[in-house]
Amino acid sequence: MTADLTSTTTLNFLSILTQTAIAYREGNKPPVAEIVVNALLAAEKSAKQQRLNYPFESLMGKWRLCFATGTKKVRQRGGIILGKGFYLPKFAAVYISFSPSLDDASLQTSLHTNSQTAAGKCEISNQVQLGSMVLKLTGSAQYLGKKNLLAFDFTQMQVSLFNRVVYHQRIRSGKVESEDFYSQPIAKLPFFAFFLATEDFIAARGRGGGLAIWIREKI
């Protein structure tokens, strides 16, 4: 089922999360963290119940991390619980970007035919900016539209200062070599499970269990 964000069951959490994105972008007072966490959980539950599928096109672009929960381990239960949630401070800009891999003909075909179930090769970038310093990680990713899962593996790290690259090195943060990445089971890779994607923001649960919202970076 394709994503339909107009039904009455989605309007409440969608309104809250939209308000959250707008307030963060414009510097206004956003909803309290507890309300945002509950809205995220409601959105995730709704996506599962409706079996929504989001095409990779809806994730492409550059997004700024707005809100995240993190998790806490529960030793007695052997599991995790969500953190209280917090807004990212404006002085620390954290971005994530997704783009199709230019050498993957299968993904290009799936985008043009609106296929939402095929796995596709893509590229990921994660960037943290603190004043004039920028730390950027890049790597490979693959998107499974049927499950809204995007698995990734960072392989390159770059540090820039005053728009000048001062460090660039291959890293082994991932589990496998880049050429073997696409043959690896998703369960062995870090991933995001997206449950909401609009023109202005996206939301997902990470492999560690935490929830997050990113707002689209305006060009």
Keywords:
two-stranded antiparallel ribbon, alpha+beta, 219 residues, Lipocalin, 3 helices
Q: Can you offer a commentary on this structure?
A:
- The chain has 219 residues and is of the alpha+beta class.
- It has helices spanning 8-26, 33-50, 105-112, and strands at residues 61-68, 71-74, 79-82, 86-87, 92-100, 119-130, 133-144, 149-161, 164-170, 191-197, 201-206, 211-216.
- The strands form two sheets. It has an eight-stranded antiparallel barrel. Strands 2-3 form a two-stranded antiparallel sheet.
- The longest helix is centred in the N-terminal third of the chain and has 19 residues, at 8-26.
- The protein is globular, with a radius of gyration of 18 Å.
What's the short version?
The protein is α+β, with helices and mostly antiparallel strands and 219 residues long. The protein has helices at 8-26, 33-50, 105-112; strands at 61-68, 71-74, 79-82, 86-87, 92-100, 119-130, 133-144, 149-161, 164-170, 191-197, 201-206, 211-216. An 8-stranded antiparallel β-barrel has the order 1-5-6-7-8-10-11-12. A two-stranded antiparallel sheet has the order 2-3.
